[in-house]
Predict the structure of Prepilin leader peptidase/N-methyltransferase.
Amino acid sequence: MPQALLIGIVALLGLAVGSFLNVVIHRVPRDESLVRPGSHCPQCGAAVRNRHNVPVLGWLLLRGRCADCRAPISIRYPLVEAGTAALFVAVAAKFGPSWALPAYLYLAAVAIALALIDLDVMRLPNAIVLPSYLVALALLVPAALLGDGPAPIVRGLAAAALLWLLYRALAHFGGMGGGDVKLAPLLGFYLGWLGWGAVAIGGFAAFLLGGAVGVVLMATRLAGRKSRIPFGPYMLAGAFLAVFAAAPITDWYTSLLIPTA
């Protein structure tokens, strides 16, 4: 498949998935059905018309307000849709028409949902995290067997175990929540599938990003030393930094340790 065609298809898919993620982000923390009722205004309960359900364009057409009661509609809805499409395009550009592409597209969708839910309610729901293990295995095991063989799977499982041990130890001393411990092996599996460099970069980047944001929040007095800050978004951001940039970062770091003549 030509790369341009793949990118176009994935962009449209990302918009549609982003629209669904808005439902997931709103309803899963509330233990509500993702199917019933259909999309509706949370203020007046009026059903969203089909023409207003078009990702991004629907919000623009409505000028950010409900068609019935004129209550404001958060700009986060079109941003999630556009952001999902953008991340899907980036993943497609990275992996191309490969067997691994569906797995990392799924991870992108899950990452957006989990990051925003964690920011909203400081929780990483089991309803999303735990089934993602089965999806990862179902998509990446065939991708490995149809590619270079079982080595990426073995490495992924080892990385999953390593990150679980690390986060479990941190949780024992009160440094991590239970949701973070459950998410860590999933990210370890995806990063381990790519290589140990990705595991190292993704694992380190999570703490670097989380620490940097924490310092900024305390410096601006938006948070204190005892404030709870969700760590899931930084784990996910670190993982995707590794997905996209582990190789150049590893090469750069190696060049510092072993300078060329």
Summary: The mean pLDDT is 90. The CA atoms of residues 198 and 246 lie 5 Å apart. DSSP finds nine helices and no strands in the chain. Residues 232-257 form the longest helix (26 residues).
